[in-house]
Amino acid sequence: MIKKDLLSIGEVSKLKGITIKALRFYEKIGLLKPEHIDPTTKYRYYSANQFLYLDIIKALRSMGVSPQDIRVMLEKQDTSVLLEFLELQKENALCKMLEIEKTIAMVNSFGNSVRQSQSSTRNKEVYYKDLPCRLIITKELGNPVDEAVINKEYALFCQLLADHRLLNAFENGFFCVPVDGLYLPTKLFSVVEADEHSNTSRLSEIQAGRFLCVNFNKYNEKQQLLKLNQHIIQNNIKPELYLQIILKADLFDTELRYTEMQVLI
């Protein structure tokens, strides 16, 4: 005869949010055995006293602890050992949460960069942008500019970001100087984000302000830069800074790369 205070495996599954398959597996490996197994029907039954164990198991599983490791810990039947184990897993979970938060922030930054790039490339004329202060890491470039060197420096930037706990804002480009209507890159930069854990010793800034902009690709570069230069002359603008930003409008079309000129006015 089944005690009235016992619950079937199906009832426990619904109450605790643990699948019947998982409960059977826990029984199989000796992690949590039912309070009673009906000898005739083989139905499994659990008592309310086992709910605390289920809560502990569920919490530890959500933190990535294997059922086998949980079983070894519970077999010791030592409350002090259990508390120490739970504290350790909590610290591990907090570290994972920080990494997940960084990943989410990175995904958000990447998505924003792509959407802003796509918005810029739809504009075929000269336009203005009011941009905030940007934190950057930089590297002086030699002359002439070698694309292989640039790619290598960007790779080194990635390592620097990891070492200094900086977040990639997915905005890369060059400081430039005007030469005969074109713009010569002189310094490489990458925009980053920092928090209280970051080492900011290598950072500098691009000041906030209003930027005169135009974007171009390899087919219309001269035409678009001519528009920019004419606008500067016609409006008697005295630029303070010249930047080229590598736009990320289409990640899969590597042939048609867009660049945005940003002129601080």
Short description:
Helices cover 42% and strands 26% of the residues. With 265 residues, it is an alpha+beta fold. Strands 4-9-11-10-6-7-5-8 form an eight-stranded antiparallel β-sheet.
Topology:
Elements: E1 6-8, H1 9-16, H2 20-28, E2 36-37, E3 44-47, H3 51-62, H4 67-75, H5 79-121, E4 127-131, E5 134-140, H6 147-163, E6 167-179, E7 182-193, E8 204-206, E9 209-216, H7 221-234, E10 241-246, E11 259-264
Antiparallel strand pairs: 1-3, 2-3, 4-9, 5-7, 5-8, 6-7, 6-10, 9-11, 10-11
Structure, explained:
By secondary structure, this protein is of the alpha+beta class. The protein has 2 domains: 6-75, Multidrug-efflux Transporter Regulator, Chain: A, Domain 2; 115-264, Regulatory factor, effector binding domain (Multidrug-efflux Transporter 1 Regulator Bmrr, Chain A, Alpha-Beta Barrel), CATH 3.20.80.10. It is built from 7 helices and 11 strands. The strands form 2 sheets. The protein has an 8-stranded antiparallel sheet with strand order 4-9-11-10-6-7-5-8. A 3-stranded antiparallel sheet has the order 1-3-2. It is elongated. It starts with 5 loop residues before the first strand and ends with a strand. 18% of the residues are buried. The mean pLDDT is 92.
